[in-house]
Design goal:
Mean pLDDT: 95
Strand order of the largest sheet: 1-5-6-16-15-14-11-9
Largest sheet: 8 strands, mixed
Shape: globular
Number of strands: 16
Helix content: 25-40%
Oligomer: single chain
Radius of gyration: 20 Å
């Protein structure tokens, strides 16, 4: 049902622009209803997470919108618009919920482009007592359901095509580095999860990746992912990219068979990242340690850090073993409808400052 895109830069409320966007938006509503019906049939409860949080998340490259709450006496208390409902959902798991999903708005600063919007809709769901492989099956089902609901036989984006009804390929990050960049990733990761920056940098340079003298191991890892790996994922069929190095999975538990990697996967279609999932870490001491590392890195790069939600760490002690996934709903609608920009599938886009 691909339609010609509206004139770039034209006001979204103009009647001619809205007429071009409307088929995408109506398909979005149908997909929303279909997803809610599927989760309900699977025994999930829909939950609503408060948008205002003490901490927006503790990942180094995540940027939040800051605000403040005033007490009755007028004292200011810093708060943030959440970048994900993750902390709130995990508190609900600690409270006794076992299958929950949230379909709501989240906010991320420093993000604007064809695939990024400062306010967007995230679908996040959790299965207590389930392995993270169960979420891979969920993702495959939702991919097909979105396509079926929108009437799409395949996804096409930026010269890549993907069959949303085909079983996704499951590919480890180490396999992807070897296949697409010729890099032995795990040769730079020790048994305790520590990393060898120089070893990865040398392998990346051989692969044709530019490496700066002050790049960290994580910087080099990200550059290989962005330049060599991501553009090749989700071609023909979706890709489940799994088993991230433990240092790249701050909220995921280590894999029992190989503690160098974590129970984390991302879903890709047509080179577009759609979902990020974890076998959830429930050790509060280890989680605190990882948050400190992430915030130290944020301070090094951006000169700022976010507070740790102590209430979240306390809840982890009571949280059951669980797996959870976050899916960029607008991006999936974009692929399912044949839209070209994320703003084409958002009813009222945020003003472009």
């Amino acid at each position: 049902m691909s339609q010609p895109p509206p004139p770039h830069g034209a006001a979204w409320w103009r009647s001619d622009v809205h007429a071009d966007r409307r088929p995408f938006l109506l398909a979005r509503n149908r997909i929303t209803r279909a997803f809610r019906a599927w989760f309900e049939a699977e025994g999930f409860e829909e939950v609503e997470a408060a948008a205002l949080q003490i901490s927006p998340g503790n990942e180094a490259h995540l940027h939040a919108f800051a605000t403040e709450a005033l007490t009755i006496s007028g004292e200011a208390r810093p708060l943030y618009l959440h970048t994900s409902p993750e902390f709130a959902c995990k508190k609900l798991l600690a409270a006794g919920e076992d299958r929950i999903f949230s379909l709501g708005k989240v906010w991320r600063n420093r993000e604007r482009g064809p695939l990024h919007h400062p306010e967007f809709t995230m679908l996040e769901w959790y299965r207590a007592g389930a392995p993270y492989q169960a979420l891979m099956d969920d993702c495959a089902t939702l991919l097909a359901l979105a396509a079926e609901t929108a009437g799409a036989k395949r996804f096409d984006f930026r010269g890549m095509a993907c069959d949303p009804f085909a079983e996704p390929e499951r590919l480890s990050v180490a396999e992807a580095f070897h296949r697409h960049a010729g890099v032995d990733l795990l040769a730079s990761v020790a048994a305790d999860g520590s990393t060898d920056r120089d070893a990865l940098a040398a392998a990346a340079r051989v692969a044709g990746i530019r490496v700066a003298d002050d790049d960290s191991w994580a910087d080099v890892f990200s550059r290989v992912i962005v330049e060599k790996v991501e553009p090749r994922l989700g071609e023909g069929r979706a890709t489940v990219l799994c088993e991230y190095p433990i240092s790249e999975a701050a909220l995921a538990r280590p894999k029992d068979a190989d503690p160098r990697v974590a129970e984390r996967f991302e879903l890709y279609a047509c080179g577009v990242e759609l979902a990020n999932a974890f076998g959830e870490l429930t050790d509060p001491a280890e989680q605190r340690r990882r948050f400190v590392i992430e915030m130290d890195e944020k301070a090094r790069i951006y000169g700022e850090r976010y507070p740790v939600d102590e209430d979240f760490l306390a809840a982890l002690e009571h949280m059951p073993e669980a797996s959870g996934s976050a899916l960029g709903f607008d991006r999936l609608v974009l692929l399912a409808t044949g839209a070209r920009r994320i703003e084409d599938v958002v009813w009222t886009p945020v003003a472009d400052a």
